[in-house]
Amino acid sequence: PQRFAVTQIAMDVAIVTSSVYLGQGAVGPVLPDIAFDFRLSVVTAGLVFSSFALARLFLNVPFGFLSDRHGRRRMMIAGPLLAGLGLVGSGLSSSIFPLLAMRVVGGAGSAMYMTAAEAYLADSTTGENRARVISVNQGALLIGAAISPARTGLLAEQIGWHQAVVTMGIISLGGAIFAALR
User: Fold this and answer.
1) The whole model's pTM is what?
2) 27-44 b/e with 16+ CB inside 10 Å = b?
3) Which of 26, 91, 145, 161 ranks highest by number of CB atoms within 10 Å?
């Protein structure tokens, strides 16, 4: 029974992780279109790309404190919600400043989720199975991050970059719903 519970926890967290990271790489393949539409310099286009990661960098530790104080579950639901809203907002943006703000929101959601998820997995495991369970989550992260650019690029060719990014955001929002239910 204990082994099944840990396996189910690992799979549930991995599903949410992959949905969050399906959105992380969504902007990469459409960045040339964004730069063209918004008439961005190369530096500003780079800022659009890196703003997500910068938000994660600066918010991981504060979200760790919040996760310890307010619980993992809240953060594991709110994180994908913010990540998804950040992507939807990015896709709906019509100028650079809202786009940058939404990229930061998405990065904040990713930081919130991943910090709490890794802590939750550490809390739910023992020294005998912790590395195996966390490696499943890391694999889910890599699956999402690897599929995201190709999926977004394919969608962008069919429906345009705005709609493609919104679609990837909706997938991330699905991760929030799954987290809330599980």
Assistant:
1) 0.91
2) bebbeebbbebeebeeeb
3) 26
User: What SS3 state is found at 59?
Assistant: helix
Whether the CB-CB separation of 144 and 18 falls below 8 Å is answered with yes
Token code pair at residue 7: 């396996």
The predicted structure's pLDDT at residue 182: 83
| CB 20, CB 159: distance < 8 Å | no
- Is residue 22 within 8 A of residue 172, CB to CB? The reply is yes
CB atoms within 10 A of CB 123: 10
Average pLDDT value for residue range 90-98: 96
For 14-59, the pLDDT digits (tens) are 999 999 998 888 899 999 999 999 999 999 999 999 999 999 999 9
